Fold this sequence. Notes:
The structure is a single chain. By secondary structure, the chain is α/β, with parallel strands linked by helices. The chain has helices at residues 40-48, 70-75, 93-98, 106-119, 121-125, 136-147, 166-181, 193-197, 217-228; strands spanning 2-11, 14-24, 29-33, 55-60, 63-64, 78-81, 154-158, 185-190, 202-207, 210-216. Helix 6 packs parallel to helix 7 (166-181). The longest helix has 16 residues, at 166-181.
Amino acid sequence: MLVVDNLTVRYSGILALQEVSIEVKKGETVLLVGSNGAGKSSLINTVIGLVPSASGRIVLNGKDISAVSCSARAQLGIGYSPEGRRVFSSLTVRENILSSTQGIPISTARENLAWIEKTFPLLAERANQPANQLSGGEQQIVAIARAVSRMPKLLLLDEPFLGLAPVWIGRVSETIRELQRRGTTILMTEQMARPALKLVDRAYIMRNGLVRRSGTVAEIRDSALAEEYL
C-alpha cells in the first residue's frame, strides 16, 4: 500500500532523513522505532505532506503522491494522529471526532461516528464533554478516533503511547487492535518498543535519520528493545 523510496528530508540545511526506504503492505501494522531525533516523526510528517522532501518518492497504492498536497493525501485515504494528541480543547469529544469529516457525505460521517462510538464506548459516554477535561489517555483515544473518522486506508500514528501511564498504554493498545480487526493498515512510530512490538507485524529501527535494521518482530526484537534505552 505504501512505498517510501530513497526519501531525503532537510530542515534549513540540516539532514533529517537520508535516503530512507520503507514499505507497508495492505493490512499490515508496521513500526518505526528509535529514540528522540531518530527521524521517525520526520518520516511520518513527510508521508502525510506536512514536510516537503528533498528527494525520493512516496507511493500510495501505486500512485506517486510526492507532489500531492496534504489535504489531497487525506482525500486519498491517509489518516493521521499526531504526537502529543493535540485535541481541540474548546470542542467536545464528539465535535473533535467529527472535525475531520469535512468533505465526505454527512450520512457517511454519521455512519462512521456510530461505528466509532459503538467500538469505543468511552467516546459515547464522554461525547458532550469538552476534550480538555479528559485525561491524557482519554485524549489519545479521541485523537485516534478523529484520525479514523474518515475510515482511512492507511492510518499514521505518531508516538501513541507518549506520556501515558501503563493502564492507558493498555487501553490505547486495545484501540489499535480494534482497528486492526477492521482491516486498517497502520504505520506507527514509538520510542517505547516493548508495548509497540506486541501490536505490529514488522519494524524498522531508525537512528540519526537512517534505517539501521528492519525485519519481523522476532528478527529484530532484541535490537529494538536495546534502542528503547538509548
